[in-house]
Hints:
The complex is a heterodimer of chains A (about 525) and B (about 375).
Chain A (H helix, E strand, L loop, with lengths): L4 H42 L2 H35 L1 H35 L6 H30 L4 E4 L4 E4 L2 H5 L2 H32 L3 H36 L1 H8 L11 E8 L4 E8 L2 H7 L9 H27 L4 H10 L3 H5 L13 H9 L5 H30 L7 H9 L3 H14 L5 E3 L3 E2 L9 H36 L22
Antiparallel strand pairs in A: 1-2, 3-4, 5-6
Chain B lengths: L3 H36 L3 H9 L5 H18 L1 H10 L1 H21 L5 H31 L3 E3 L5 E3 L9 H25 L2 H32 L2 E5 L14 E6 L3 H5 L5 H16 L5 H22 L2 E3 L9 E2 L7 H28 L6 H7 L4
Amino acid sequence: MIIDADVVTLSRMQFALTALYHFLFVPLTLGLVWMLAIMESVYVMTGREVWKRMTQFWGILFGINFAMGVATGVTMEFQFGMNWAYYAHYVGDVFGTPLAIEGLMAFFLEATLVGLFFVGWDRVSRVTHLLVTWFLALATSLSALWILIANGWMQNPVGSAFNPETMRMEVTSFSEVFFNPVAQAKFVHTVSAGYVLGSMFVLSISAWYLLRGRNVDFAKRSMTVAASFGLAASLSVVVLGDVSGYAVSQNQKMKMAAIEAMWETEPAPASFTLFGIPDIENRTTHFALRIPWVMGLIGTHSIDEPIPGIHDLVDDAKSRIDQGILAYDAMLVLRADRNNAQAKAILAAHDKDLGYALLLKRYIDDPRKATPEDIQRAADSTIPNVPVLFWAFRIMVACGFYFIALFAFSFWKASKRQLDKDRWYLRLAFCSLPLPWLAAELGWIVAEYGRQPWSIEGVLPTALGVSSVTTGQVWTSLGGFVLFYTALAVIDVVLMVKFARKGPDGLGLWPPGQPSTAPAATIIPVQT
Amino acid sequence: MFDYETLRVIWWALLGILLIGFAIMDGFDFGIAALLRVLTRTEEERLVLLETIEPTWEGNQVWFILGGGAAFAAWPMLYAVSFSGMYLAIFLVLLAFIVRPVGFNFRGKVHDPRWRNVWDWVLVLSGVVVILISGVAFGNLFLGVPFQFDGNLRMTWHGSFFELLHPFALVAGLVSLSMLLAHGACWAAYKADHVIAERAARIARWATLAYAVFYVVAGIWLAYGVAGFAIVGPVVTDGPSNPLYKEVARGSSWFASYLQYPWFWAAPVLGLLGAIGVQLSVAKRGLGAFLCSSVMVAGTILSAGFALFPFLLPSSLDPRSSLTVWDASSSRGTLELMLGAALVFMPIIIAYTSWVFHVLRGRVTLEHIRQSGHTY
């Protein structure tokens, strides 16, 4: 089994690039579609034209973003087969199912209805169109649910077992896979993050109109929706982020320790490191500023459970590698003799550690011949990049608390009908536009980069999952993606900015019945 | 519910249904995209032609995405081997899929002829690339592709992109191209303004003629010029999914299964009857010709699937590694659960898809575009 290290690096870069890029569009789709559903509901209930125009205007921006989400999503699904073929073989039996159900239950609905959302205004009744929008919103969140069930299984591979005859993981219990606590926590945290992002998008662009004194009525209403929805969402993203953190501490202790840059196991309840400079070389954290008790409370929801540190976890990994080698040996015996009862028993006793033996494959072809040095190296490789995780997590959390403050303040201003009063507030709201994207991408880095060296925690090392492809092939596709994605990103941003600047007034959407100030040639019809 | 053997056959059939669903539903979108600059003369006409597919192409494309997801879940080895093996070909297909949603959505967003021209050609290219490559890839299934497994079932591939361009595979590519151009043209004839519909009907007639010729040539070539694969020795239909547990020999005919089950001949006959039906009915520019071209598409794919059965992906390098219906599937539990999900959701999907097409019924005319503007 020869694995080209360069192919691994390039494939990882490609996956990270395409996933981070895809995740620029998905959260906005997730959040914005609910804003559309809320606005259109108000329109149908009150019959007031401004709410319909709001739905249509934000719908245009939604459409531009949705197209990019779909375009980049296709890549995600097929990349598993292209670049991660052994992964696809090894876990397809488990991992493929939620993906397929996502297509059946959610994406089909979403993609079929999205066209009708745009062209259906005059073709179906008001209530039917509202239902289309609601189902569209529901389907996008359902999509996220199934994708995160698949992803949650990668973080916490429950309900499955290794089958030596087929050399792969197979499902033993679907209910465990579907009701995986890690997946549930990730789902609520991720969709809430999307709702925050959608709210911030509407809040910021509306604030910009108010700064310019344009579309005032339109923008104030949009901001009110964004402030209420954003407040609820930002509160839930932090609360549910905590649930997510708890799930991590129970299942991915190494990720937790890396986030905390916690090298030594601390006596319970552990303290939270607010600031520090993690040092990988010397395995310590300089200038650590610690708040007692907090980490123990977050991580274990108790005061008497210790949180293990990195050094102890590496020792753990070493002993699991030893057990894994026994399983690997039994697997090879079984391959020569399918009915060897003794080997079956050994494998059954140690198959949970088989993945740890596979960590050795990076250093030696036959794990059974590993020296103590190889085992030490493999155990050390289970430490993810501590400083990156440490900082990514802290910046993400800081963003989360900032969002609560901003949306709470916006909500208060909206309820006092003073949204257009303070220019400093409007500027702040406008300048906050990129922050939810930053937080979302950092969240992705904490979750996925923090899982390394595993693609399936404890089961399949990332390096082992790659395809039998050449570096030339991956360079070609990587270069192609960079080129294509950059071009599309530029076009997307230009179009988004163009349509946001035009605003509902420039597009002839608002105020209704009055001639638009824009030149006739650039008027986009109402249904766009 | 069902035994493992039956489940595997059901999932083989479902894979076929998804493939046929993709070829019929998204096939006409790709055909229209490929014909965009052939069927239209002016920007207004282009808006008409695009509007015939714009509100629905996104839903149609999910047949492809679902096909990929179902292959991943039900036939993980097929998914892994084909996508990583034909790496660059799949990459080109991916690029074509990436530019489509943005092409459809962004094209109308700027009123500059140069901007629209560029997106037109991007859409044309995306249509041609996907249609041609899918046909060529299908042709390669019969030739066998160069992969093998080691004891850990890790696959290695020993071919290159250009080796996929075998003359037989190119003929298969031409079958695919002529078939889906005809299919797209039939949709335009049914759905677009009469000016466009008339041109489309003419193109549909020529394309079905070309299809019939290429299809028959491919069939004769397959019968006399391409060695088939056959499992030798006992066939275990409900064993563990490990391709290395069987023996395979080359040299037989791909038509062996047609001799064994004569009713398989219904598939190629349907393909050709569909083509004849298009010839006879497309002048009326109604739904009839489109239904005929759908039959043509379904018959063609079925005939290929029947010939390959029970093979999914034969290996030219190490025939034993070939993937078959009996040894490349997911575990029984996965197949069972997914079948349940498919049985629940497929009728619902068909119901709301039909409803959307019903809401959008009627011909898109130049008049309509002038009055309402471009609506997507």
